[in-house]
Design brief:
The protein is mainly beta. It has a single domain (25-158), classed as Immunoglobulins (Immunoglobulin-like), CATH 2.60.40.10. It is built from one helix and ten strands. The chain has one helix spanning 2-15, and strands spanning 28-38, 44-56, 61-67, 72-75, 80-82, 85-90, 98-107, 114-126, 136-145, 155-158. The longest helix is centred in the first third of the chain and has 14 residues, at 2-15. Residues 41-139 form the DUF11 domain. Residues 1-21 form the signal peptide. It comes from Saccharothrix carnea. Keywords: Signal.
Length: 159
């Protein structure tokens, strides 16, 4: 009788200790994707910021910032532009769904060769993101000249 009571007490203590092997994952695992598309002959890049909710919960809201090259001068909506940074808001978003925001960015690099890097990073989301490993992405573009024919040689963007 004593042995049975001890086994029952130890088993009950283990089951109610708060450690659960079958706890369901929580949060909304977001992945961030940054794609750059050029306007070719102008120092302009269209940045597409995409957020995908891998679940398991629906996303209420998320904020992604895109750190641009300091020579960025102006952008088009929908993200907010200040100090060479785009701030983009997303949500709500169901598990499995993707939302995308496209912003045209102009650069002050006329008649110069330049490498233009941009990095998108999720900085906040509700509910929390359980996997920070897929919360950032980088895109690189080059403003280059093509030395063909007579000067002035044309400059173009390549991403």
């Amino acid at each position: 009788m004593f042995r049975t009571s001890l086994v029952v007490a130890v088993t009950a203590a283990l089951l109610t200790s708060g450690a659960r092997a079958d706890a369901a994952p929580s949060g909304a695992d977001l992945s961030v994707d940054l794609t750059a598309v050029t306007a070719l002959l102008l120092p302009v890049v269209d940045y597409r910021v995409s957020v995908t909710n891998h679940g398991p919960q629906p996303l209420t809201s998320a904020t992604v910032v895109v750190a641009l090259d300091p020579r960025s001068t102006i952008t088009t909506a929908p993200c907010v532009f200040a100090n060479a940074t785009l701030t983009c808001s997303f949500g709500p978003l169901a598990p499995g769904a993707t939302a995308t925001s496209t912003n045209r960015v102009y650069f002050d690099v006329m008649y110069t060769e330049a490498t233009l890097d941009a990095t998108a990073t999720r900085i906040a989301s509700t509910p929390t993101d359980p996997n920070a490993g897929n919360d950032t992405d980088t895109a690189r573009c080059r403003h280059e000249s093509e030395q063909i024919g007579f000067p002035p040689w044309p400059y173009y963007m390549r991403c």
